[in-house]
Amino acid sequence: MSFRIAPSILSADFARLGEEVRAVQAAGADLIHFDVMDNHYVPNLTVGPLVCEAIRPHVTIPIDVHLMVEPVDALIPMFAKAGANIITFHPEASRHVDRTLSLIREHGCKAGLVFNPATPLEYMDYVMGKLDIVLMMSVNPGFGGQSFIEAVLPKISAVKKKIDAHVSAGGQPIWLEVDGGVKVDNIRRVAEAGADTFVAGSAVFGARDADGGYKTVFEKFRRALA
Fold first, then answer.
1. What distance in Å separates the CA atoms of residue 111 and residue 131, rounded to the nearest whole number?
2. pLDDT per residue over 69-81, tens digit each?
3. Any catalytic annotation for residue 179?
4. What average pLDDT score do residues 187-209 get?
5. Number of alpha carbons in the 13 Å side-chain half-sphere of residue 162
6. CA nearest 8: which of 24, 16, 18, 189?
7. CA triplet 18, 20, 24: central angle to 5 degrees?
8. Which of 30, 64, 132, 179 is catalytic?
9. Which CATH homologous superfamily contains domain 4-225?
10. Rounded CA gap, 19 and 116, in Å?
């Protein structure tokens, strides 16, 4: 299995954001994870399409936009135009999940659902054919730097079983991404539960001043996954 590591810019130095995303790409990032919070669906407020558009010329790897907003549909064309490659959203923040997934795909992006630790997985069951990615939150969304919720591991495994059954029946591949508290010392267990894509914020950007910087932390992640 190939694994993907997606640094979350939520933990980056926003005064040097272009430099930061170039640095993590050079160090081995596979995606740039872009957290959008609206002070409505979640209590924090972060960034919008203009920031996505600003960093797009600085990287060639995909930009993975996670919409923690309600409602979601109006922002999808804006982020697609701004250079997003992947757009994920929380099903409880959309009145019509199937329609929102179709809207993302119609704008040329990969589409996905995001599940909070307590969100039921049944939302997946009738839209599997429109999913390119499932993002499992291993913290409650809204803030960076939180600790991994261990009780989410069986839920990751349950998502993996649904994906495997779908693919075995002839369905398209679906990535399984995990976001929240992913560190060098737990990424292996998260992978063993079934994840193939890992969002890491403070674990990556917190290493900017350490010996070896970003390159070293990516090497540690890859060794833990080997």
1. 6
2. 999 999 999 999 9
3. yes
4. 93
5. 22
6. 24
7. 120
8. 179
9. Aldolase class I (3.20.20.70)
10. 31
Catalytic residue among 35, 38, 64, 132: 35
Question: What pTM value is reported for the model?
Answer: 0.96
Alpha carbon 32 to chain centroid, angstroms: 9
Long-range contacts formed by 186-192: CB under 8 A, 24+ apart: 186/148, 187/221, 187/224, 187/225, 188/224, 188/225, 189/153, 190/138, 190/153, 190/156, 191/3, 191/225
Other Cβ atoms less than 10 A from the Cβ of 160: the count is 18
Check whether 210 has a pLDDT greater than 80: no
**Res 176: pLDDT:** 98
Task: Look at residue 26 in the predicted model and tell me its pLDDT.
Answer: 97
pLDDT at 211: 67
Please report where in the chains the tokens 């999913």 appear, as a residue: 131
Domain ranges of the chain: 4-225
What whole-number percentage of the chain has pLDDT above 90? Answer: 90
Encoding tokens for residue 99? 């329609």
